[in-house]
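Model the whole thing, not chain by chain.
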Amino acid sequence: MFHYPFDPSSLAETARIWWNLYGYYLLLAIVIGGAVMALLVGIPLIYRQKPGSHNPRGKDEISPGVIPGERGKTLSGLLIALLLLGVFFGLLTESLEATKEFKEVEFEGTVPDDALVIQVVGFQWGWTFKYPNGVETDVLIIPINRMIVFNVTSEDVFHSFSIPDLRVKIDAIPGKHNIAWTKVLQPGTYRIQCYELCGVGHAEMITKVMAVTEDVFDFWYQSQGTTEVTVGSTSAETHSAHD
Amino acid sequence: MSRNSSLKRWLMTTNHKDVGILYLVTSLYFFIVAGTLALLMRLQLAVPENNFLTAGRYNEAVTNHGLLMVFWFLSPLGFAFANYFVPIQIGAKDMAFPRLNALSYWLLLFGGLLVLAGFFMPGGTADFGWTVYAPLNTDEFTPNPGANLVAFGLLMLVASVIVGTVNFVTTIGLLRAKGYRYSNLPMFTIGILITVLLMLWAFPSLQAGLVLLAADRLLDARIFSAPEGGSILWDHLFWFFGHPEVYIVLIPALGAVLDIISVFSRRPLYAKKAMIASLVVAGILSYMVYAHHMFMTGVKTFYLELHSLTTEAISVPFGVITLLAIATMIGGLIRLSTPMLFALGSISVFIIGGITGVFNSSIVIDTANRGSYWVVGHFHYVMVGAALFGLFGAFYYWFPKMTGRMYNESLGRLHFILSFIGFNILYFPMFLLIDMPRRVFTYPEWTGWGPLNFIATIGGFIFGLSHLIMFINFLYSMKKGPLVDNNPWGSWTYEWLIESPPSEFNFDGIPIVSGNRLMISLANGASHNHLHTGDHYSIWPFAISAGPFLALLGLGMMVAGVGGGMPLLVIGLIVALIAVVGWAREDYREKFHDLEPLESKETWPFNGIGKYKLGMWVFLFGDAVFFAGLLGSNFFVRATNPLLPSGPEVKNIIVGALATIIMIASALSVYIAARATRLGNQRMVLQGLGLGLVLAISFTLITALDWMQTFRQGFTLENPAIATGFMTVFSHLLHLGAGLIPLLYFMIKIAAKGLRDGMQDSMDALSLYWNFLAVVSIGIYAVLYLF
Ligand code: HEM
Ligand SMILES: [Cu+2]
Ligand SMILES: [Cu+2]
């Protein structure tokens, strides 16, 4: 039932970077969240007023018309803040590190020579993929083990180009060219979908990407996209090889 | 005044508690409307490839659900309690400007009705999502005429919020009981103060965006559909508002939750000052995190990383508050009554909402999350979870105060248990649906999203229907519940020291804080009370909101090609005009003149500043953001598209300089008039005002001629630099025109009746306003002419 690959790191470089970072966040979230939740449930149960108990601890400090006294050190707030800052600082450095890797292409502005640069154009409602040799398709076909750079824009409204399984996502904005990349590690068919509301056809703005071996890709590419391509046993309907 | 429930009372009331009840009923009404839309969407999504709603209907439902829930349910629910309880909690007899308070309410209601009217327009209503992304929001891509009404409704909402903000800041600033220090106030009131300050700076940004959008939709401008940067401009304007907005929705609830936790564990808040400091820090940071909504837009990575950092930073103050709230309970004597259950429930889901928010703060992780159901889960955990649970807890907490009767505790707990369980069944699956895009009306079966959606829908119905228990409980208990004494919870704040429900002016004497005791001094209470007779009804807040409502509805209908639009527009304008004159003539201020002399109140740090002047300062602080948003937009479109003409290529620098100097002179004249009021020199006052008037009109004429020249040169609104500039100037002139009304009013009044006591304060406010407009004209000159 759980369709989305929980650990997608074997599928693509981008997915691997994502997963490495996500692991940290998930771990900390579970540990910290669990601890705080335990306190939140535990403390009221421990200090609950028992039937007939009359303020046994003599700590009834709230009384009508009296401004409650100062309690606790203001400094303790700072202490907690520093503690949390420490945790987040750790997360942040990890996150920035990963961002650097993730946004490499965008940062450097340089694209490796052997990269395949594909123009992606979103429109109401579909996608066009344009290859350097002039081939235009509505199904994306890419080779594995090679840097793929997407140069994404839109003809009309805001869309968002995404291959969720590979952790690729970038907005398609009219008048703007945005860059995303991936490097697929295994042949397979993955869902491409729009992730920004773009009108009544938004839900149906789905297509697929077929990641194939270098040989198959070259063959298809040389033929100017006229040959039929299939990925192993995966057909178009089962969108992912990994579920 | 008889406190009956006649129609007259509800249409004309200006009493803060009545207005609070109006807010309460209205917000719950919109909760039901928007909740129904939500359940329709959940039905549609329950199974894959469902045909219950079409894509168009679904998009309309999603958009209006979001808008109504955020702007017409959650925020007004918080402000229902704020209206009712903030004046009492600070020891005041009413708001600083009771009539403006009623005005906020009617603007809100009529704005909401405009949004609903959108549904009835042929061709459909807004369907571009509550974020109204450009250029989908322009008439090119969304011709739906109903969308115009939604935009108008939002503009009325912004007006309501701004009026309310001015009122709350002035009230809390000037009307606290003598000796009541800010840090001693209950968390709820502190939360409201921080909330309105946030609103003051956030909403004008939305207002600027909407004004520009109106130009696009109605005047054939091309600002947001400009290929260069149009959509990104909207993103900036919207999210500069949108992120603080989520705290605006949250903080009133959080304040109430903290007070409830303290009372129900009988312990003072742990390190309350640190909590307040945390809220302030979070409030300030909230303006610097908004680009986390734009991680995928390809905006400069440095900017995004900065906002990634601030977003992680902003979770620190909220973490501090959460932990301190938990620390408060240690060693307490905790009663798990319904309000406390809701308060704890609110904190617990807030923890999940907050932690999932930290995931979104990382650019890399957000690559998976953006635009997916994970985000839907995250913000519902914060908004439905933390805010709704908190405010419903507050409702249970204050119910005995508002009605004098106790609700049924078993039904209250049942409501909590069912809604809490339903809530988690509804929203937790969404975190697992992280790969499902949001705002899709359906999905193919092979995606495998069916079962989780089905579970969510079941949870949705449990959650939605559970609230019926609350409605039944309250409706029954209001009439038949057991009577309670004034302070059933043993709370410490002012509202619990007075009767339930409170009398018209809350206190029989003068509230005074002495040491750490809240007191009501009866020293000369009797004579004081004497002044409180006479009715404080006014029909003008209603009429002043109904006029624009009719006019905008008429305009919307005309654009939609529906018959009857034109007459409605005309009637609406006439009503508005009559209402403005009526408002000005109503000798209202004297009716309230002595309600509470400022000498008997705590006014630090605004000692010696009149309420009109302070109110004007607050208003102008917000208005400055509005103009900054407009001028910033002009700057932005020109920076992103170097081909657009610069100022000197379009404008005549000399003419602009002349106009600006005239505007400055006009402001100086009004300033002199205000000074002369202080000196009691009536002639000089009239001369100053007269000169100011003439100069202001000259400024308007020169500006109008200058723009006609611009259009004659062949520039049109299709050029975004021209369109943004034009809307800025247009807004400035509208401000000036609106200012002419009080200016004329003062001239007539002073000429007829001479100078009066108490006029000083309002003349100061007028002069402040005029000076502000002069400063704006300098800004306009710098950006539109010179740059
Ligand atoms: C305090 C109450 C609530 C608030 C403030 C709220 C807020 C929102 C907002 C802002 C949106 C986004 C709209 C958009 O994408 O343009 C939304 C979407 C949605 N909400 Fe709510 N909501 C609330 C309660 C509920 C309830 C009770 C349910 C279910 C029974 C619900 C179900 C949904 C659904 C199904 C969507 C659409 C998701 C999508 O298609 O992207 N909401 N809500
Ligand atoms: Cu889309
Ligand atoms: Cu945000």
